[in-house]
Amino acid sequence: MTSLDRPHLFIGGAWVPPSSAATIGVENPATEETIAHVPAGTADDVDRAVTAARDAFDSWAGRSMADRGEVLDRLHTALAARAGDIAKTVGLELGTPLKVAKAVQAGLPLTVLRGYADLAVRPQPAETIGNSLVVHEPVGVVGAITPWNYPLHQVVAKVAAALAAGCTVVLKPSELTPLVAYLLFDAALEAEVPRGVLNLVTGTGAEVGAAIAGHPGIDMVSFTGSTATGRAISHAAADRIARVALELGGKSANVILEDADVVKAVKVGVGNAFLNSGQTCTAWTRMLVHRSVYDEAVSLAAKAAAGYTVGDPFDEGTRLGPLVSAAQRDRVRGFVDRADARLVAGGPDAVLPEKGHFVAPTVFADVDPASELAQEEIFGPVLSIIPFADDDEAVAIANNSRYGLAGGVWGSADRALAVARRMRTGAVDINGGAFNPVAPFGGYKQSGVGRELGEYGLAEFQQTKAIQR
Ligand code: NAD
């Protein structure tokens, strides 16, 4: 028992006991201590939550979008009041350094929720095509399954859009970082989100996740996580032709052309690759550099990596926290140990804190684009640098991946845009273009199906109906 224990599930608008006494321990990855326990939910709990969500659906779907926007506005107010707790909780259960936790782990979901509250209250013009009135209606009951790396953002990106659209939701957060989701449900209770509209069942993927994916009462499964799990969820949903939205892995390329501002491109590129200890699906883990500026870029990247102080997420000076779990750390260290490339920073012998699941910020140069290092999503602070001779080769290397989530290009504006257009990914940032929280977000190829955020994210949770007159 600890003071952070959360013994309940949230079903039908109230905190309720789970059907089983089994719990899951939540670990602080920086100290390796168990800091809390949450219920190991069961298929029965999922069933109860789906029933509550179905019961709530007609009334919630029947409200105007503007009405639902007012509820989201109240939810935003209640969640914003918890911003400090959100950052601290993610610091504890995931190990994100506090400064990043405040800006990204707490700041981003609040921005996204605010955006959906505003979008929902905006007047929706009637759409007509010939003699048809085209209307958008909610898909139904949504099962949302989320991972641990941005544990509140990934929940809010689904929940805010689904609720705005008129869907009701059963959420299963990652069993590694479930605590921050509880803060959202504390806020939902305070904001008087109508009962049954938003339900929480914690537990493992094998039990609760699989029960959601296969539940006949769930009309759509919105999933963020690994490509392997996304595939399993697609199979389960296919049996009943349920809709799926999948946000999966990535192996994004950051292309530095010879007319780029190399100093800035490398600094921002390394920062992107190491954000959240590299546990970011959009991380630019492959740095592709034109041969004429290659040596300069390699030495800049090595120097930048060495500046990422590893340590306690709650220390002011820490820039790189631990990985989420021992399993994740061992997996990442395995890639580093097996790497067949020139090590220029970090590596297996770097000195690290004795406790905690740390991996040193690591940079490899001269990486073979076909190697494991360049092909597999490592999900840790490991950057691979690869040279290229011209734009065609840069594009070919960038696209030599089964993933297609994000990327960057640095160089003169027109040329960078031409390269960006040829990259088979859902997003590309030119010369450090800022992340846009209302732009469509999602992947090509095995990085996913569908889009999140903004109006595109809303549309994922809607059906389209044509009414002829
Ligand atoms: P994961 O696939 O193991 O788990 C994600 C969620 O799915 C968890 O809640 C887990 O309990 C659940 N789950 C596991 N097995 C399941 C099953 N058989 N049925 C139903 N649910 C199941 O992924 P993870 O390890 O938590 O997250 C890391 C991965 O997620 C990385 O590959 C990363 O790239 C990807 N990711 C993608 C995005 C994106 O937006 N594209 C965002 C974050 C993470």
UniProtKB/TrEMBL annotation:
Q: What is this protein called?
A: aldehyde dehydrogenase (NAD(+))
Q: Which InterPro entries match?
A: Ald_DH/histidinol_DH (IPR016161), Ald_DH_C (IPR016163), Ald_DH_CS_CYS (IPR016160), Ald_DH_CS_GLU (IPR029510), Ald_DH_N (IPR016162), Aldehyde_DH_dom (IPR015590)
Keyword Oxidoreductase in record: yes
Catalytic residues as annotated in Swiss-Prot or TrEMBL: 247
Provide any one GO MF term from the record.
Answer: aldehyde dehydrogenase (NAD+) activity
Its recorded reaction(s) are: an aldehyde + NAD(+) + H2O = a carboxylate + NADH + 2 H(+)
Tell me where in this chain the Aldehyde dehydrogenase domain is found: 15-467
* Domain of life the protein comes from: Bacteria
Q: EC number(s) for this protein? A: 1.2.1.3
Keyword list (alphabetical) reads: Oxidoreductase
Q: Could you tell me which Pfam families the record lists for this protein?
A: Aldedh (PF00171)
Protein family membership: Belongs to the aldehyde dehydrogenase family.
Instruction: Give the first-level EC class, as a single word.
Output: oxidoreductase
